[in-house]
Amino acid sequence: MAKHDVFSWLKSRLKLSLLPKRNAETKGFTLLELLVTVAIAGGIVSGLMLIVVQLMGTDQREASRSETQREMQMAMDYISAELREAVYVYTGSNLQCAGGTSGGGCVPLTSYLPASLSNNSVPIIAFWKQQPFPETTAGVRGQCYGNNPPRGVSCLTGSSYALIVYSLSKAPSTIWSGSARITRYALTEFDSQGNLNKGYVNPGAFNNFATWPFGKDDRTGTGQIVDLRNVTVLSGRATGAPADIPPVALVDFVDGEPRPGGATACSGDGTSYSISPTDAMLNSTPGFNSTVRGFYACVSIRPQAAGNVQQEVDIGVNQDVLLYLRGNSDGRPGITGDGFLPALETRVLSRGVLTKRPSN
């Protein structure tokens, strides 16, 4: 009997232990514990978000720099390709003082070009190259087909000389947002319809590349140096300055800011190379000074004891040109302030055959 009672007591105790304790204290987190947990988790998430934002900003800055440098290289390649076709490249001194007047004075080349080229802009490199006639069947091609070309035009070659001017421009713009841009201007003998352009003087006919647009008017027989734009040298061509057609922007985000350390000089400056533009040209252009060298060139020269800049270029040999171009990505997404990029450099040997000597 006693044994049976013991088993009954154990059985009842086991059942009670398996039943939920209705009066047991409810377990959980306190408000303080929750606040601490939330604060720790928030700090971790905020730190991770900050790292992500910094990584995204770094990626954006690197993308902007890479894109700017890629555009600088494309612009350099484009200019170099045209320079290889040049028959005459102006040196820095020659570009600064290109035209020779009858009084013996000298005025920069840009004074004889549209005013838009000197609007907060400075010419960097200027040269003459062969330009094919317009493809239209009207105009010069039509006259050539009819065996009645304009006077002085060679239908056999199918091309004429064109003056190409690359400038560094800081003119205000609602389109471009970089500190400076490179513009391209072309003065061709014919417009897109094949008609004669006003203000054009053929340097091949008057052999006045260095002094363009001045040259000798052979019709007078006096050998007087005159502005040939004011002389009716070709039938049907209007005299006077060319139409003010704005240059075309080639690339933006070129470095147009002054750089510390003074002006840049070419190796052998004054003896074998001439820097273009000169310090005088930069200092006389609004918004520029001699330390603005985001884009410049070093043009090979033939030293002259008398310092005759008009004969500084030997057109009987190929000209050697060193081009320098530096971008500035300031203003692109992610770039504020320091956007200077490494300078690009290339060397171009012109392929022109103007009065080329077999030994050269």
Give a short summary of the structure:
The protein is of the alpha+beta class. Helices cover 25% and strands 21% of the residues.
Biggest β-sheet strands, sense, barrel: 5 strands, antiparallel
Shape: elongated
Q: What is the strand content?
A: 15-25%
User: How many DSSP-defined strands?
Assistant: 13
Give the ordered list of helices and strands: HHEHEEEHEEHEEEEHEEE
Distance between the termini: 135 Å
- Strand order, biggest sheet? 1-4-5-6-9
What integer is the average pLDDT?
78
Catalogue the unreliable spans: none
The value of Rg in angstroms is: 37 Å
Instruction: Find the structural class using helix and strand composition.
Output: alpha+beta
Number of helices: 6
**Portion of residues in helices?**
25-40%
Structural domains: how many: 1
